[in-house]
């Protein structure tokens, strides 16, 4: 039988089950999502570089890690377009404007629904097309870079990834509830972001257990045990190796070569943020 969330296989009578790792990972995903939600909702002024808001960095890194995945690229493209419009002072967008600016072979419907459920946009339908209104929540991070033109392109990219990561966390949070094929098929676009789920399960799991380092072999074994295709594995590893630019993920602090394999070192903030989330969850349960 196969784990419905990650793809791990074991022998047994049923076709699907939820493996132990996924059982444990689910509540962590839900906590990260609810923390992201609260941060976006509660704070009037969002500064992603604020040490108390490292959850925003975790969201951006989640999206950066997944950049090469065409399945989820639509969330990044939308975030980027919305931020650009918002920073130019426009909060109403028509579907045809969007079609001119962002090319995709996918329908907008599922992605719109994700953004709507997060409270980032409101979608209405006029006679011939849809209209998208950006909410104050979507405009929050745009206000800080737009009009004076003082922000660099790297900052704009990072902020777009913050929103894209928020959208991906929404889907991962849905995947954390999946127990059946029907539920899995009702995820946006009928697809589960299995590679992202499995990669974060390993990376956050390492941080959660307090270990700063992991080897390429261990990670690759973890992914292939869950039958993540080699191309998807390669994409994740190439993202992890890109860690020193300003428009790359910041989960990894350093990569060393030991023997014939790479050893990755997690950024301190990942451990800090995992610890913070654990503490919050515990104090809530009390
Ligand atoms: Zn699993």
Can you tell me about this structure?
This protein has helices at residues 20-42, 54-65, 73-87, 95-101, 109-117, 136-139, 153-175, 181-185, 194-208, 216-225, 230-241, 268-285; strands at residues 2-3, 16-17, 92-94, 121-125, 130-134, 213-215, 252-258, 261-266. With 286 residues, the protein is mostly helical. The chain has one domain. Helix 2 (54-65) packs across helix 7 (153-175) and helix 3 crosses helix 7. It is globular and about 55 Å long. The two termini are 37 Å apart. The model has no long low-confidence stretch (mean pLDDT 91). The structure holds zinc ion. Zinc ion is lined by residues 3, 5-6, 8, 19, 21-22. Zinc ion (ZN) binds at residues 3, 5-6, 8, 19, 21-22.
Mean pLDDT: 91
Helix content: 40-55%
How does the overall form come out from the CA principal axes? Answer: globular
Please tally the helical runs, counting DSSP H or I stretches of 4 or more residues.
Answer: 12
Question: Which structural class should the secondary elements be placed in?
Answer: mainly alpha
- Low-pLDDT regions: none
The major pleated sheet works out as: 3 strands, antiparallel
Number of strands: 8
Order of helices and strands: EEHHHEHHEEHHHHEHHEEH
| Cofactors, ions, other ligands | zinc ion
Oligomer state equals single chain
- What is the beta-strand fraction? 5-15%
Radius of gyration: 19 Å
Please list the strands of the largest sheet in the order they lie side by side.
Answer: 3-5-4
